[in-house]
Write a structure and sequence with these properties.
about 240 residues, mainly beta, seven-stranded antiparallel sheet, six-stranded antiparallel sheet, 13 strands, about 15% helix, elongated, disordered N terminus
């Protein structure tokens, strides 16, 4: 009787859908993850001397497709930037969380000509699939101001003409969608970025999401069925 209840439960989990995941899932083709922090400040000091400070830092994962955990900052007394990213990519899921922050801090008695910061935190993976495959796109996007934005995009790159996108600017955007993709090549992106200058302010943009293959019903039956066999053997 217990076995019958288990099988009914299994059927309720797997008896749905008609689009199967490809046998090999995603074939990863290109890794374009990076964080770039640019600062440009120009001002006159108390003696009337012109000061010009340019600073750029660019970070990329050490090797393609390996998990990446990054957290760093760049700044001076006038503008400071920070960013973090935790991400991974494999044949069944592309996932990342990240944040970009910028702070503009005017100093008393300083005559600024310009003060700006650009902060870009990007997770982009290009992949291919060999047959019709169902995916779940999920994301929590946030932006604290109109000069910052967070986006999620899924774009066909070989004539499939597929384009999915959502963004947050000065607010939050939640995404949870299931899509069926034809065989082809695609690019998936999560990105937070900002470009600001001028008055004192704090800007934040973040993303937390990914793209995952939805297992076919037959695949789930194999996995769960294997588990039931193991349970029976252990008993």
């Amino acid at each position: 009787m217990m076995q019958n209840k288990l099988l009914v439960g299994v059927c309720s989990l797997v008896c749905w859908g008609s689009v199967a995941a490809g046998d090999d899932g995603m074939v990863l083709l290109g890794d374009s993850r990076n964080v770039t922090m640019d600062i440009d400040t120009v001002w006159f000091d108390d003696n009337g001397n012109l000061n010009d400070l340019l600073s750029q830092q660019n970070y990329v994962p050490p090797e393609d497709f390996l998990p990446w955990s990054f957290d760093d900052s760049n700044g001076n007394d006038h503008v400071s930037l920070s960013a973090n990213q935790n991400s991974f990519a494999n044949a069944t899921e592309l996932a990342a969380s990240g944040e970009a922050t910028g702070v503009s801090s005017p100093q008393d008695g300083i005559d600024y000509l310009s003060r700006s910061g650009n902060n870009h935190n990007t997770f982009t993976i290009r992949f291919s699939i060999s047959e019709l495959t169902q995916f779940n796109i999920y994301a929590d996007l946030f932006s604290s101001s109109g000069v910052s934005t967070s986006v999620v995009e899924l774009i066909g790159t070989d004539g499939t003409n597929y384009n999915f996108g959502a963004s947050a600017s000065n607010g939050q955007e939640l995404v949870d969608a299931v899509v069926a993709l034809e065989a082809g090549t695609y690019r998936f992106t999560l990105r937070s970025s900002m470009s600001f200058g001028g008055a004192e302010d704090i800007h934040t943009a973040s993303f937390d999401g990914g793209l995952r293959v939805v297992p076919s019903p037959s695949g789930l039956l194999v996995l769960v069925g294997g588990g039931l066999v193991g349970m029976r053997r252990r008993r």
